[in-house]
Design a protein that fits this description.
It is an enzyme of class 3 (hydrolase). This protein is of the alpha/beta class and 238 residues long. Helix content is 36%, strand content 26%. Helix 2 (92-102) crosses helix 3 (107-120) and helix 2 (92-102) packs parallel to helix 4. The structure holds adenosine-5'-diphosphate and magnesium ion.
């Protein structure tokens, strides 16, 4: 399960409204991409869904439950950031285990999940290393592993690949879309990169200044962009 609904969500910082009233539904199992220029409110929206920022008004629902007042750790979501946010002094194994340890999971179950995550992310040989001994791509895999073991109802990615070089980025895109095909878990992926949006999404949400310009599949946006902004941003010929 992982249906996410935003009802009239707004967000202001002081007197500046960065998200005017916004309504959006992400269906269970969708791969949704929030795309738009830098500063348009993608991260803010993701953080409101995660509970890392409070909505100024409106509601966030997960599987029909109103989670607006519920703390981030109780929302059943896992977030992966651009900067990995790994603990440098802990081994890969301990980094991946961290959220499970915090949740009080048994050692046996932790080990089972670590093994499965390491297998699917090609990290088996790196479990005893520290993050500093890994490449950027491997570090991002550890961050994804730490998200997977929590068995979240949805994954939230905030520009997870923008610190990687171009070649690695292409490979990691494939890994994330394969992971989605395998797990069928809802994913919301934030990027300012049109190519990433067009190649990864089932549903693209185009944002400009906190406003949804259009929601649709990559093909719909390409063939029927609603306005010049969407056409220009998506690279549609219209
Ligand atoms: P994006 O992720 O699309 O680049 P952000 O969501 O980070 O955009 O930012 C949207 C707007 O909100 C920007 O104008 C940014 O400066 C502002 N903003 C974001 N976080 C804060 C904050 N904690 N305090 C004040 N303004 C913020
Ligand atoms: Mg951002």
């Amino acid at each position: 399960m992982g249906r996410i609904v935003l009802e009239n969500v707004t967000k202001s910082f002081g007197s500046t409204e960065v998200i005017p009233p916004l309504n959006l539904t992400i269906e269970d199992g969708e791969f949704a991409v929030f795309v738009g220029p830098s500063g348009c409110g993608k991260s803010t929206l993701l953080r409101v869904i995660a509970g890392l920022e409070d909505a100024t008004s409106g509601k966030v629902l997960i599987d029909d439950e109103d989670v607006t007042e519920i703390s981030p750790s109780k929302r059943g979501l896992a977030m992966v950031f651009q900067t990995y946010a790994l603990y440098p002094h802990m081994s890969v194994r301990k980094n991946i285990a961290f959220p499970m340890r915090m949740a009080g999971m048994s050692e046996e179950e932790q080990e089972k999940r670590i093994t499965a995550a390491a297998n699917s992310l090609n990290l088996t040989d790196y479990l005893d290393r520290k993050p500093g001994q890994l490449s950027g791509g491997q570090r991002q895999r550890v961050a994804i592993g730490r998200a997977i073991v929590r068995d979240p109802s949805a994954f939230l990615f905030d520009e997870p690949l923008s610190n990687l070089d171009a070649a690695l980025r292409v490979g990691m895109r494939l890994e994330i879309t394969e992971m989605h095909e395998r797990m069928k878990t809802t994913m919301i992926y934030v990027t300012h990169d049109q190519v990433e949006a067009m190649t990864m999404a089932n549903k693209i949400v185009v944002l400009q200044a906190g406003v949804i310009e259009q929601v649709g599949s990559p093909l719909e946006l390409y063939h029927r962009p609603r306005n010049k902004f969407v056409a220009g941003f998506i690279g549609s010929p219209k």
